[in-house]
Fold each of these.
Amino acid sequence: MNDVYKASILKKVNRVRSTGCFCDRKYMPSTTPLTWNDTLYKSALVHAKEMTRYNFFAHYSIEGADIGERLEEYGYDWQVAGENLGEGQRSFEEVLRDWLNSRSHCKMLMNPKVNEMAVATQGRFWVQHFGKQMPANSKKVGRKYTH
């Protein structure tokens, strides 16, 4: 994915995050901007390719790995992780609109606990991965992720 496309996606997501929005009937106030993370992009792209190859649509891999497990495979030591999926949209603007019209996807997009993201598309699938990495010299004692 080229830098211009990444910047365009990030700008559109951060515009929503900076102004706040309603996720269904719940108002989500403005929150901090996200930065692009290439490791999140790799994990999102692999998941989009897998869904395309095996013709399925799920928050779990074909082998049953959830978002946290899939991020760990790429060395992303996450404190918070999340995922939005889309199917059939022809543009990022269309999938973003659909995510904003879905309460759970919208809440993930507006989650103030994440600070990084990436979006990948393959075939008819869109995958958006969110994360916040563990602070240095810390140890994970539990698992909690949102999708």
Amino acid sequence: MAKFLDTTGVSHELAQIIKGAKEKLILISPYLQISDRFREMLEDQDRMKLEIRIIYKENKLQPQENNWLKSLKYVRTSVCKNLHAIA
């Protein structure tokens, strides 16, 4: 049976995925936006030397947020112009 999540549910599930990753984490989203909560989680996983790849279509980060993301040693980002999401 399908499981429908509201915003809180999506945030919870994503947090569990990020925290539970052991070897590699690939996140795919049409928009690159990172809340403070997820920022801390990504920093924690970066310290644990977890390879993280973030693929997105449109970057919605502020310049200082982009600089922070680039400072993470084990995080790589990629742009996919043809990425689409259906709601």
Amino acid sequence: MFSDPGSTMSKPTVSLVLGSGGARGLAHIGVLEVLVERGFAVRSIAGTSMGALVGGVYAAGGLQVYTDWVLALERMDVLRLLDLSFARNSLFRGERVIGALRQLIGDPDIESLPLSFTAVATDLERGREVWLRRGPMFAAIHASIAMPMIFAPVHLGDRLLVDGGLVNPVPVSPTLSDLTDLTVAVNVNGKSLPQPPAAPLPQAAESAAPRRDLIRRFIDDLQSRRGRPEEVRSGLFDIVSRSMDTMESAIARYRLAAYSPDVLIEVPRNLCAFHEFHRARELIAAGRHHAALALDTWENGRLRPRS
């Protein structure tokens, strides 16, 4: 399905900007599918958080393998990828999911990739964004996805790094010097739908109750080890994710006003919660849908005769 990112065939070249947004970042897969199907050649990727993860995996030639993997994930599979942190600055270390991705994709150095790749993170001590363009790819991705309070900060050199969405949720700026035909940016913190779509029903109704009980016990055990009060337990992820969504949406509007891409693809921010990676199939489909709409609009405007 996905072409070799190092292919030299003559096609319109693209600088692709992939934004942050937790599980909604799986929509980036659908966007890439549509770009490849329509003959665009991605030559540069800048990504924040899940945008960095999907973009890096594509640059390494592993997006089809990654797509097959996420499509097979169920709720309990997602929970098994979470490694409890006993530090006070986070709930999870994030090393288990990064380790799984290394086994799945490999871990090339960024400078060895066949296209330009930038992962954006936030330097906590200096209070500024960092463009990671060298070194092991998954070390850069790990830093870029380190969502505060949820995943532990990452030490790279003398820097303490967290999620790049804090400062640049849709990082157009790293692509400004690219010699490509157009810049396509994907914002997965777009305007909310009138009503959020309902979550899909479980395939086997008889297994739903035991699964919910397992998840509930897992969260209760996790929070009890952290010493959280009972009333905070069920809402912790929701509070953090909604706070991040609100902040990143505001920052994204400001950044996109300053650095306007040629094509902006917007995915509604209430499409799913940040942790709902088990909904990969519908999120990828949403990425395809919104990419097709935006590219159709751009192509129609480009081909319209001048008056």
